Amino acid sequence: MQNSMTLRFSALSENESFARAAAGAFLARLDPTMGELAEIKTAVSEAVTNAIVHGYGGDGTRFVELTVSIEGRVAVVSVSDEGKGIADVAKAREPFFTTEPGTERSGMGFTVMEAFMDTLEVSSQQGRGTTVTMSRAIAGK
Amino acid sequence: MEISCKKQGGRVVAKLSGELDHHSAPQAREALSRAMHKEPAAVLVLDMAGVTFMDSSGIGVILGRLKELQRTGGSLTILNPSAQMKKILKMAGLGDLIG
User: Fold this and answer.
1) CATH of the domain at B25
2) Domain count within chain B
3) Which residues contact B22 (CB under 8 A, 6 or more apart)?
4) A46 has catalytic annotation
5) Residue B28 sits in which domain range?
6) Domains in chain A, start-ordered, CATH in brackets?
7) A50, A62, A82, A136: the active-site residue
8) CB of A93 less than 8 A from some CB of B
9) Does the active-site annotation cover A62?
10) A66 touches A15 (CB < 8 A)
């Protein structure tokens, strides 16, 4: 049977740590290793940060939705926003690509998500928002 | 995120503790830049032993300080990163900075 939880929270940077902690706590029942948990939490943090920074441009009155599901021994994470969307998803997924080259953004967000998760899907429509869905099998301790 | 900086010879050693993410990155950036200007040194050492989490926002902070240092011929060393941090640093091409 699938077990899942959904959180909806304000698009504020202070909620990034809450989101990854909540995802980690929910997945703890799979008894993941410290490394597995750290990497999933990092991927969650990257996706939530993208939603806050790029989806909503820092508009904290908007909301981000995080769903975490357990399907057998697989953790499935989905992060959605209803923000401005991504013009070119393939380009956005390239390492070091950033829409704000003058800032100190590393452009490594999607690269980290891809490296730490088994699958990564990005669905986006300009003006409608973005959903990032990723999964990882948990070997456990 | 807490950062304490101390000048030791020609190096500034910054001990970081807590979580380094998009939320805490501006604070980390400001504290490190302030320390580098207050105590100019050729080498900045980031001791990550107390950092419990870092995502790619931390890479942005490190790259920014590295660029500042390289303008004056300086360098940066990272000590005690966790296994997860090491992977991210290597992904960003910063593995050589790990001391």
Assistant:
1) 3.30.750.24
2) 1
3) A13, A16, A45, A49, A52, A53, B55, B57
4) yes
5) 2-97
6) 3-137 (3.30.565.10)
7) A50
8) no
9) no
10) no
